[in-house]
Amino acid sequence: MEFVKKLQESIQEHADHNVLCIKGTSHTYTDFAKEISKIRAAIVRDIEDSEKLIGLVTNDDIYTYASIIALWLEGKAYVPVNPEVPVERNLTVFELTETKYVIDSSETSEYNTFQIITSSSIPEAEINLIPKEFSGDQLAYILFTSGTTGLPKGVPITFDNVQGLVHAIEAEPEFNLVSSDRCLQMFELTFDFSVVTYLFPLLSGSCMYTIPKGAIKYFYIFKLIKEEKLTVLTMVPSIINYLRPYFTEINAPDVRYCSFGGGALHSDIAKEWSDCLPNCKIFNYYGPTEFTVYSGFYPYHKETHHKSHNGIIAIGTPQKDTLYLVVNETNEEVAIGETGELCLAGPQITQGYWKNREKNAQSFFTRKEDGVAIRYYKTGDLCLKDEEGDHLYVGRADFQVKIRGYRVELAEIEFHAKEKSHKKVNIVALDITNDLGNAELGLAIESEEFNTDEIFQYLRSKVPSYMVPMHVRFIKEFPHSINGKIDRKELRKHFDITK
Amino acid sequence: MDKAEILSKVKEAFVSVLEHDNFELSDETTANDVDGWESITHMMIINEVEKVFSIKFKLMDLMNMDNVGDLIKTIQSEL
Predict the structure, then answer these.
(1) CA distance A244 to A472
(2) A58: helix, coil or strand?
(3) What's the rounded Cα separation, in Å, for the pair A233 and A216?
(4) pLDDT mean over A390-394
(5) Nearest residue of A to residue B34 by CA position?
């Protein structure tokens, strides 16, 4: 496997460089090679060859990162579980993957019903970074996201999928990490965005800076930018939303690249943020877990590249070997400028949800193009393609609701409401079902109560009356999912409109 | 304003954000000691404290704030 071989080469070539800085302690690539080799020796000794899906407790330490590489050198997949998530949910994950072995660096493991490899206390082993021969259709990892049925939904990703991602990023001339780069790694390893924040630094011999669990992450990130002079940032947009009141105090000339993903990037805040990073290229990445992290990006620039729709920055064009297709309900391509569901095809597409035939039948389809059958994944995201071939994000397909028979895009309501709000706060539009079973619109505002007359007056001047929310709730703190996204389902519970 | 008075107002700010008063605040108290005090609620507590004391923190001060003692020192320097 080409990229695993490259990992080996990079680890060896950058032996005296730092690989990880965790809670102020730096570790070199030599330390990393030693830990990988120790864990690998334990894997070879304790786990039979046929066992491919190995549990991994995602602690914030060198052992956990070394475990991923050790498993990959052996052609095995990691099934990560977050130690801060209820054990019961994590056990469900291991049950679904029929995992028997768990690598855990914790002093006392909560997974004692499994065969444990305690990665933090393995005796010295000879350095061995040469990858085993294995086929690219083997799994590299499985990540679980919340499923609508309550049971977590598994997304298996193969080594070939990851190779596709590596090829695409390598082909991008605008983005080149070098061994002197200092990169932010703010993501929990159960979140797919983490794959790009550890894999690309490792491939280029640069150093990652993690956020300790329990730290106030917004300030910790700023501290790292300032004191460690980070050069590469990869973040979800919610981070800069919280730092926004302090933007005037941020000036980070060392940052070369700032990549966003995992949520809508708004054009007003993107412009203000780019003023804080005078020497930085900003990338607005798009991609679902089902397509191995990234499928493409838009190169944002406050003066030359600021295309947006409803205030949300464009997601641009597909990366190398990826195809974008915008379709209607019957999976037929729609015309340029028309909104439809974005579908993705290419080497990064998952083979399908883990043991979930029903969901797979809904989410994937095959289309003949020039006599070749191409398999597409339906993202659930609504987009439109413009004349220049750029894709503009419109909203989630499931945020497109029908109110009194009219199609309503919740993002549009949010855009106008925010436009007129004096306070820079989160505002979310939601569809709520009344006791007649009809959808009504609600507006949730993350703030203390304030007078909304002006916002509503403005809304009425901008959108048809059926799009003006009938219910308003002020909520001091929006509920978030574990990945930092606003939990709309939970938010909906604040609107009890049944009589 | 003396320290005890500041501490009591700070506690009120915590209670209003966290919506419980099941904690004691001393100089050594950190986010690990108080239920619900984490990244997002911290931002709200800071916002609330700024309002109560009519002050505006600097990012540099917030960045080095590790416990309640640091918070109180910073408030004192701003008053």
Answers:
(1) 25
(2) coil
(3) 17
(4) 96
(5) A214
**Distance from C-alpha of A271 to C-alpha of A288, rounded to nearest angstrom:** 25
3 state DSSP class of A255: coil
* Tokens linked to A194: 């983490």
Beta-carbon count within 10 A of B61 CB: 16
Instruction: Name the residue in chain A with its Cα closest to that of B57.
Output: A246
Is the Cβ of A477 closer than 8 Å to some Cβ of chain B? Answer: yes
Contact check, Cβ <8 Å, A476/B44: yes
**Which of B32, B40, B65 lies at the smallest CB-CB distance from A214?**
B32
CA pair distance A101, A117, nearest whole angstrom: 7
**A187, A216, A238, A240: which to substitute to probe chain B, counting the most B Cβ within 10 Å?**
A216
Distance, CA of A367 to CA of A324 (rounded, Å): 13
**Would an 8 Å CB–CB cutoff place A476 in contact with chain B?**
yes
- Number of Cβ pairs closer than 8 Å across A and B? 38
> Would an 8 Å CB–CB cutoff place A222 in contact with chain B?
yes
d(Cα A152, Cα A166) in Å, to the nearest integer?
27
Q: How many CB atoms lie within 10 A of CB A51?
A: 15
Cβ atoms within 10 Å of A124's Cβ, excluding its own: 9
Q: What is the pLDDT of residues B31-61, one digit of tens each?
A: 888 988 888 789 889 989 999 999 999 998 9
ipTM comes to 0.89
Q: How many CB atoms lie within 10 A of CB A9?
A: 12
Q: Which amino acid is at A72?
A: W
- Total number of residues shown for chain B: 79
Q: Would you say A149 and A135 are in contact if contact means Cβ atoms under 8 Å apart?
A: no
Q: What is the least distance, in Å, from the CA of A493 to any CA of chain B?
A: 18
Task: Using the predicted structure, report yes or no on whether residue A434 has a pLDDT greater than 80.
Answer: no
* pLDDT tens string A113-139: 999 999 999 999 999 999 999 999 999
Tell whether B55 lies on the interface with A, counting CB pairs under 8 A.
no
> What type of residue sits at position A466?
Y
Q: Which pLDDT score, from 0 to 100, does residue A389 have? A: 97
CA pair distance A205, A30, nearest whole angstrom: 11
Alpha helices in A131-216 (DSSP H): 159-170, 193-204
Q: At which residue do the structure tokens 């605008």 appear?
A: A174
Look at residue A217 and tell me whether its pLDDT is greater than 80: yes
Contact A477 B60 (CB under 8 A): no
The model's pTM: 0.87
Which residue does chain A place closest to B39, by CA atoms?
A: A216
> Using the beta-carbon criterion (under 8 Å), do B63 and A226 form an inter-chain contact?
yes
Question: Would you call B17 and A477 a contact, using CB atoms and an 8 Å cutoff?
Answer: yes
